[in-house]
Amino acid sequence: MKRWWMLTGWILACLCLFGQTEIALRSLPNYSFTHFDKNHLVYPSGDSTSMERFFMKMDSVFQMGKGNVNILHIGGSHVQAGTFTQQFRDNLISCNDTLMGGPYFIFPFTAGGTNNPSHYTIHATGEWHYCRNAVEREDEKRMGLSGAALTTTDSTATIQIVTHERYPSDMPPEYIFNKVTLIGFSETNNVVPALSYESDTLHGVHNDTLSTYTFTLPCYTDSICILFDSVPGEFTLTGVLLDNNLPGITVHGVGINGARVSSFLRCEDLKRDLELIRPDLIIFGIGINDAFEKDFNKTTFKQDCSELISIMQEVNPDCALLFITNNDSYTRRRVKRKTVYEVNPNGKTARQAFIELGAEYNAAVWDQFDIMGGLKSMRSWQKAGLAQRDKVHFTKNGYTLMGDLLYNALMERYLEHIEANKRP
Fold first, then answer.
1. Which of 31, 105, 246, 273 has a Cα at 20 to 30 A from 344?
2. How many structural domains comprise the chain?
3. Which DSSP state fits 38?
């Protein structure tokens, strides 16, 4: 499916609205088993300098319509599902609907036979081989920020990316772009990706150092199709960066089912890919899979987190950090042919690790564990239709609520920043 808009006039009209931003917090339902009164960002070290720098960049975007704010939300299946990240992002955009900036990092999971975030749609043809950083394999490919790789030897294979299909046909697109960067490589150097644009086939500019192919489109669109020259060989795709060269705010969701912190440390091109987006705020929504390890050790976990942070700070030393404590969860085992769920005690240990990391790195902490009700609260979330039967993952309603909660906590601090910096 392809659809095009004459967008120049629409964009200019939108840009005229900058400076009219009205920030409103989301209303929240009332659940007796939660601690929504604790829904705040806290600074364990008492130092909020890095977050204040981030808020100053938000000032520029929100109030003057200048520059871009890049937020990276990294994690496991909670992030790959997409709903949590997208609700948080949609709430930010709702402050001013002209704020859909770029670039925008995505990965075509559906082509690999796994779940895709709902805010963009993938249509794939041909044969693709998928690998992810959460599973070590002998035939594993080099990976980067996405934590995944798609490889094909099928010269007829294609991947179409559509960024608006979940919306009614009479609405503007969810995300428009006029520049596409494909991140990937051909080990034989003879397979080159191309883009199908309307009736034309476009070839990009190759940067061998970054393993990128960059395409500049003649106008804005919401849909492109990746294809290949009909030459025998192998090509591996590790990410797609969509850009629109517009000021605004972008939330990149990077999550892999089953990923631990160490999973991303195995991605040798992580730092290189981070350079492409240079995040201003990194939200660590990772750790739930680490805490399911029987030999989970707080010291080792913190060391892994510190190594990951070190890589990220090399790319942007001024980047603000926000740690999300793990949600409460249960482990599952079989007893006399019955499935028994037992509360995971590592949740409390992981929570303490994040608070300590927050203190060590002068970072913000969003205490999801405590906010949702603490130990054993996941059963209540399940009974309320907010969590799935595995008592690890949330339902769509649960993830949506989490996105609202995180948005409220961040914007509460941002409104305090605005109030503190008002001119007399």
1. 31
2. 2
3. G
Tell me the pLDDT tens digit for each residue of 273-328: 999 999 999 999 999 999 999 899 999 999 999 999 999 999 999 999 999 999 99
Burial of 273 from C-beta contacts in 10 A (0-12 / 13-18 / 19+): buried
Q: What is the pLDDT of residues 141-180, one digit of tens each?
A: 999 999 999 999 998 999 999 987 554 444 445 678 999 9
In a domain, 16, yes or no: no
Give the tens place of pLDDT for each residue, 95-118: 876 677 777 899 999 999 999 998
d(CA 318, CA 281): 9
**Residues 109 and 91 reside in one and the same domain:** no
Q: Which domain holds residue 116?
A: 103-245
Helix (H, G, I), strand (E, B) or coil at 51: helix
Distance CA(199)–CA(194), nearest Å, equals: 13
Instruction: Answer yes or no: do 87 and 136 share one domain.
Output: no
* Boundary of a domain, candidates 222, 245, 268: 245
Q: How far apart are alpha carbons 213 and 193 in whole angstroms?
A: 8
Instruction: Say which residue the tokens 């793990």 belong to.
Output: 326
Which helix (H) or strand (E) segment is 106 a member of? strand 104-106
What does the alpha-carbon distance between residue 297 and residue 255 come to, in Å, rounded to a whole number?
A: 22
Checking if the pLDDT of 8 tops 70, the result is no
Together in a domain, 315 and 337:
yes
Q: Which run of H or of E encompasses 188?
A: none
CATH of the domain at 180: 2.60.120
| Same domain flag for 330 and 404 | yes
State the Cα angle at 99 between 396 and 176, rounded to 5°.
80
Residues 6+ apart with CB under 8 A from 266: 133, 136, 143
- Domain boundary (245, 266, 297) is at 245
Residue 231 structure tokens: 């030459």
17 confidence band (pLDDT: 50, 70, 90): very low
Question: What is the per-residue burial (b if ≥16 Cβ within 10 Å, else e) of 22-31?
Answer: ebeeeeeeeb
Query: How open is the CA angle 338-340-346, to the nearest 5 degrees?
Result: 155
CATH of the domain at 365: 3.40.50.1110
pLDDT tens per residue across span 62-88: 888 888 899 999 999 999 999 999 999
Residue 358 lies in a domain: yes
Least Cα distance to 284 among 86, 9, 72 occurs for 72
Residue whose tokens read 């769920």: 341
Cα distances (Å, whole numbers) of residue 391 to 39, 79, 188, 330, 383: 22, 16, 46, 6, 10
